[in-house]
Predict the 3D structure of the following.
Amino acid sequence: MIPDTAPGALPLYQQVSEMLIRDIASGRLRDGARLPPERKMAATLGLSVGTLRKALADLEQRGLIDRRQGSGNYIRASQTPEGIYAFYRLERLTGGGLPSARILDLQRRAKPDDLPGFGLCPDAHRIRRLRYLDGDVASLEEIWLDASHADRLDPDEMSQSLYLYYRDALDLWITGYDDHVSVAPAPAWAPDGFGPRAGTPCGFVERLSRTADGQIAEVSRTWFDSTIARYVARMR
Amino acid sequence: MIPDTAPGALPLYQQVSEMLIRDIASGRLRDGARLPPERKMAATLGLSVGTLRKALADLEQRGLIDRRQGSGNYIRASQTPEGIYAFYRLERLTGGGLPSARILDLQRRAKPDDLPGFGLCPDAHRIRRLRYLDGDVASLEEIWLDASHADRLDPDEMSQSLYLYYRDALDLWITGYDDHVSVAPAPAWAPDGFGPRAGTPCGFVERLSRTADGQIAEVSRTWFDSTIARYVARMR
DNA sequence: AGGAATTTGTGCGTATGTATC
DNA sequence: AGATACATACGCACAAATTCC
């Protein structure tokens, strides 16, 4: 790797961290793969072990790798065919579950007034999706992506993980979020197959998704069937 | 500080981190106070700057201090009279809100079957509390604390933050949790003043609280009024 | 079973950059 | 502008866990 030493560039360890995230997202590093030993890897990249370790610690905190003393560093097996769902916080009541998605509708529209203010553009892309866990309908999603990041969205290219699509097709990197979880009526457009009828209370998550510079790029709303799924947060 | 060098002791940086947490919790370090410069502090504690920095990074990640380059390290102003609510995840719909609590009931009982398995003891202390945000009733809590950590609990000594009581009175250190958020009927014991009537759907959080060694010490259930409060999770 | 080799974890020290006061 | 203080980066030694022969 050629480090970017221009003034104002990111610190070395962050450059390394982002490069590795990109490698994982793109599939160049497969799930479960073992990274080279730290000392070898540091030598290859031309940096000190300490700096590399800081980057690796960052990846571990994001849940992208497993670090095992005496063994090695491993790309965390995501147990999904589509890639990483590091940001997906719904799981079956029994724990886990394989997520998948189906797009119901995609439009470009003016942002409605009841959305929190975000982004630069008065317009946004509205994506409505049905989400599954192990094949069962678990939730509905309505996603508003600020239109400044893309003129058009191609539903055929969208992968099961929207964040991967953002990264690969739009070069838009979501690095964090704020989630607000409460209870709200299921939306009027709730299709058959989703447990709660329109207007009846169900779990509700509003997410503000942020890029590395702290700007909100996307606001999403998720209504979930709490007989199927629950929202999970871990702190340690 | 005299470092614990016994075999099996925690790493130095964790000992330092825990000591500082204790100092903050106990009030020996006041909100907003500035810590000594890293080099001076490291010299005082008899350890290297790098080790101290690792402990400080840990505190920052837990949100207990602010680190400002060129300025200093500051105890994060908690904006509450009671101390830290780092683990409290409910806030007003408008953001923030001052939490307080009132104990409704305290009993020692056999653990009910519908609790997840935890702890060593067949018994647990059951605490039922009413929680407020800015004086409004926001949620009900039912807490089950494994009885192996204390024979008796003294309701008069319990502070607004149970975790502080655990630390100070029981020497029990809660360092992390798993939260499961969904929708559930308000419990039969829901008192007047709590918005949702018994049996009607409201927000629901089940929390498994862990000590540093990963053991579950406490299971709590919170029913919250989603017209008043929402559950908040941040990731970055 | 056991010991050597490998690999990550912890801790120390130092030099230099950059933000704040 | 100078002093102070945190941020980044480098390198080394030893401990602890794992792996392999």
